[in-house]
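Something for you to look into today, if you have time. I want to see for myself how the chain folds. Leave the record below and I will have a look.
***
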Amino acid sequence: NITWHDAIVTAEDREKLLNQKGCVIWFTGLSGSGKSTLATAVEQVLHQQQHHTYVLDGDNVRHGLNKNLGFSPEDREENIRRIGEVAKLFADAGTIVMTAFISPYRADRDQARELIAEGRFVEVFVDCPLEVCEERDTKGLYKNAPRWRD
């Protein structure tokens, strides 16, 4: 038996205090495409402009909140579900939150999008060629992957 507890301080109150609207900028793309690099660069610029921001990075979140999840399709889905819920809380707090996750499944990203108020979810596909991601191979994932092409 759980019941939602309405807060006295509203999202609008928090946004007025911060002088900004909470939102989610969702970076998605291949491993090594530059999602985290772009998210942190955007955060730095926004911070310099006096905005309250936070980056939810895939690896960082798997060190804590999602450390019990693996990389099966079910665990990947749960990983993104949890991130969507956390991003929703940050946005409700008036924060501009950037997420950096591979998040390959449209259905999972759509589920996260549905949690956020209309017009406050921006999806950014970091379109980096596979060959460049393979060259970077920041986590050693590509060298261990089966080759599907010549």
Summary: The mean pLDDT is 92. DSSP finds six helices and four strands in the chain. The two ends are 56 Å apart (CA to CA).
